[in-house]
Amino acid sequence: MDAVVNLQSTPVGTALAPAVIIGGISLFLIKKFVVDHKVKSPSNLPCLPEVPGLPLIGNLLQLKEKKPHKTFTKWAETYGPVYSIKTGSSTMVVLNSNDVVKEAMVTRFPAISTRKLSKALKILTADKTMVATSDYDEFHKTVKRHLLTHILGPNAQKRHRNNRDTLIENTSNQLHTLLKNHPLESINFRDLFEFGLFGFAMKQTLGEDVESIYVDELGTKMSRHDIFNCLVHDPMVGAIDVDWRDFFPYLKWIPNKSFENKIERMDIRRMAVMKSLVRRARELSASREGVQCYLDYLESEGKTLSESQILMLLWEVIIETSDTTVVATEWAIYELAKDSKRQERLYEEINRVCGSEKITEEKLPQLPYLYAIFQETLRMHSPVPIIPLRYVHEDTQLGGYFVPSGSEIAINIYGCNMDKDVWENPEQWNPERFMDEKSDSMDLHKSMAFGGGKRVCAGALEAMTISRMAIGRLIQEFEWRVTDGQIEDVDTVGLTSRKLHPMMAIIKPRS
Ligand code: HEM
């Protein structure tokens, strides 16, 4: 207490004193908490290897670079494919090999089927009101069924064929127009395709691709660009925003208003835009027959869903459609634009199968090299490098180690895909690895980019079709070359990892 007394005699000390007292009490509580929670294996199984960190904060400082998938992969070389770290007071078990990931997703799934969300995600997912972030319960099963039946399952995908064809046609037309108007300028494919996918998502969910809207609750008219920021960009950035209280839940009584206000503002704006879009979509629906979009479907089938649940489920499709597919497609075209030989090999394959006709979805099964390019891109540049954290709700085991309830599980897909025991020269982009005789269609699951088990990605079929069609069509019509001096680094935005700077490419129409 001496320090407190001395500090109190200065003006700065007057301000600091309460903080020091709180700090002193907190330290005592933390120490007690850590001692009380020191885990001992009640079974004969060994405890997990631990990555050494600092007292109280654990390994947090080692993770501040915001590319945890890379740090986790490096640690796996020393501590093995499964180990534990400390993020403040929480224990996180990190899985870095296919075998142990499959064990978590399938065999031990009943003990690891829930999620623990950060403060930001709790607000942005309206406390798990989404397929992707809910626990594995009746709500999850019902809403995943809705999503598959109306949008993402094989039959639903057949019904949305026109929208996909329009998306690919528009993307190609826009590139031709850009080339005609600015023949010497490099192309930012990401911006163009991201906007295309956003429009596609709005059509599937709300029945139309909205150009602008007046948002009553905010008293302002929003352009399509503003709507995109409110519904996609801002929540993506917010999703990984860190409230330090996430790591020290027993200090949650200390206010962190600026953080809460920022995320709550994002939530309010997003919901205001969604309400206006839905109001307009309902007016449109009233003038036409039958189920045209996901909103119509949810209103006719999901009678037990509340209005706010409907808004969240529609928003979920918009954000998921607008993000991961563009990440994968941009990486694939970037790799091809750097590698003229492989680009030529793909062009020849398409030429052989399609001749002078435009590539169509019917032709995709006859294009194994295109498929290999897509798979290899997902392996090397997994758009979701770490699966949203799972939570262990009863004691279990993984990789032969005891895993206590209360742990979080980080599934490091990137780490699995860089495993030297499974992949030869994993750091090289080499689609041919999926073309040899040993390779079969199951290899897509070997890269595990879409997760697995009961929580496997619901949008895998749509993403595979759209991405392969976009890559195929754009290579069929243009020759791609990256501009000089591109930095190949990764940026983790939200839960996905994209190229740090958008690919800038010079394109030339093929004759
Ligand atoms: C290349 C593109 C994509 C990749 C790499 C990808 C990857 C993933 C991954 C890793 C998961 C987590 C699985 C788990 O928790 O075990 C997931 C879940 C999910 N994804 Fe995707 N995804 C992609 C595209 C899409 C698209 C286009 C949609 C469509 C709207 C979508 C909808 C979902 C949903 C709803 C879930 C939650 C499934 C559940 O929890 O049961 N994904 N995705």
Work out the count of structural domains. Answer: 1
The separation of the N and C termini measures 81 Å
Number of helices: 18
Globally, the shape reads: globular
CATH class: Mainly Alpha
Contiguous uncertain segments of 5+ residues = 1-38
Average pLDDT value?
87
CATH homologous superfamily descriptor: Cytochrome P450
InterPro entries: Cyt_P450, Cyt_P450_CS, Cyt_P450_E_grp-I, Cyt_P450_sf, KO_chloroplastic
Cofactor: heme
Family: Belongs to the cytochrome P450 family.
Subcellular location: Membrane
Describe it.
- It is a single chain.
- The chain is of the alpha+beta class.
- The protein has a single domain (97-106, 119-384, 418-509), classed as Cytochrome p450.
- It has helices at residues 2-8, 11-37, 68-79, 98-107, 119-124, 138-152, 154-159, 161-181, 189-206, 224-239, 257-286, 294-301, 307-338, 340-354, 368-380, 413-417, 443-447, 460-477; strands at residues 82-87, 90-95, 187-188, 212-215, 220-223, 386-391, 396-398, 401-403, 408-412, 478-482, 490-493, 496-499, 504-509.
- It has a four-stranded mixed β-sheet with strand order 1-2-9-6. The chain has a three-stranded antiparallel β-sheet with strand order 3-13-10.
- A hairpin with a 4-residue loop joins β4 and β5 (220-223).
- α1 runs antiparallel to α2 (11-37).
- Bound molecules: protoporphyrin IX containing FE.
- Residues 131-132, 144, 147, 152, 317, 320-321, 324-325, 328, 383-384, 387, 449-451, 455-459, 462-463 line the site of protoporphyrin IX containing FE.
